[in-house]
Amino acid sequence: MNEAALFVGMDVHKATVAIAVAEPGRNGDVRFIGNVPNKSATVVALLRKLQQKHGAIECAYEAGPCGYTLYRDLVAAGLACIVVAPSKIPSTPGRVKNDYRDALALARLLRAGDLTAVWVPEPVHEAMRDLVRARHAASFDVRKARQRLQSYLLIRDRRYGFKMWGFRHREWLSRQLFEHPAQQIAYQGYLNAMEQAEERRRQLEEQIASLLPSWSFTPVVTALQALRGVAPIIAVSIVAEVGDISRFASPRKLMAYLGLIPGEHSSGATIRTRGITKQGNSVLRSLLFEAAWAYRFMAKVSVAMKARRPEGIPQGAIDIAWKAQLRLCGRYRKLLAKGKKSQVAITAVARELLGFVWAIATTIAPASQVVAEPA
């Protein structure tokens, strides 16, 4: 049981905040206060009144589209507050759901200690994460635009039988002619959309590269690139989404955070294992799978791999990366020899790769959190 004198649950929306309170103790009163405008000054003023009347208070609200602005304002005002993971909130099946009930439930669960708080990033870290997510959104647009273009060409029985999206393939795309002008215009529209999406992704990647030197977690991003298959975008995505990896006490906790541990559905003497839980960030999980495919081949540090590594990687990170190669390349081959499908083997490799990511990140201390303004 927490030691606060009053527990406040807030259901935050764009225009309003529904507020409920729960008094300490198993039989403490739980009541709804009301709806107030979603303005930090108004919410702080109300909580100040509750604090003066009851003493120490603790607040909680769900992570959502309104972000962390209210949290930062409450903390700046000296009020204890946590942002709760929506997927971890215990729920009761029922047909009635509204702001009133949600606020009451948050206050009651906060009093019982049954809420799981999310890690709130610093404003600069959040800005870098927004940029990384914008790049992932642009990459998704590129895939969709390419799919539309390929579908249109397939309908017109235009097939390219070699490696796609290289220089020769793009020349072949530019030479495609259609009988009717309307078809040519439609095709050019698909082609232009793909090129625009690719250009937008390229610009975002340039912005990420230009801002990296001023980011406090750049040493961690640099060190992670010692790992085979971990390109700059994958490294910066891991750090931007996870944040301070050293906050996880063990690599298994990091694996569970990203949904890479096996699930289980057991009852009594019957034990049933399932596939991975798939909790957490699905985009980051897919990037780890992409990196894991690099371990299908024998362990080797090629000249090209050395050339791709940025300067300043600590020797400790390089040593861990070599241990990862020896372990993961052998792991993939052993799983295939046991008759496992390649997708299952890659999932196991991605899970263990995340353990080596944890090992490298916990040995690299991020620089000062003070970040210089870009020129």
List the defining traits of the structure above.
7 strands; 13 helices; 375 residues; two-stranded antiparallel sheet; alpha/beta; globular; five-stranded mixed β-sheet; Nucleotidyltransferase, domain 5
Write up what this structure looks like:
This protein is an alpha/beta fold and 375 residues long. It has three domains: 6-112, Nucleotidyltransferase, domain 5 (2-Layer Sandwich), CATH 3.30.420; 123-214, no CATH class; 218-361, no CATH class. 52% of the residues lie in helices and 11% in strands. It has 13 helices and seven strands. The protein has a five-stranded mixed sheet. Strand 2 and strand 3 (30-37) form a beta hairpin. The longest helix has 33 residues, at 123-155. Mean pLDDT is 92; it is low at 368-375.
Question: Can I get a quick summary?
Answer:
The protein has helices at 40-54, 69-76, 99-112, 123-155, 167-174, 181-211, 218-224, 232-242, 251-257, 282-292, 303-308, 315-337, 342-361; strands at 6-12, 16-22, 30-37, 57-62, 80-84, 262-264, 273-276. With 375 residues, the protein is α/β, with parallel strands linked by helices.
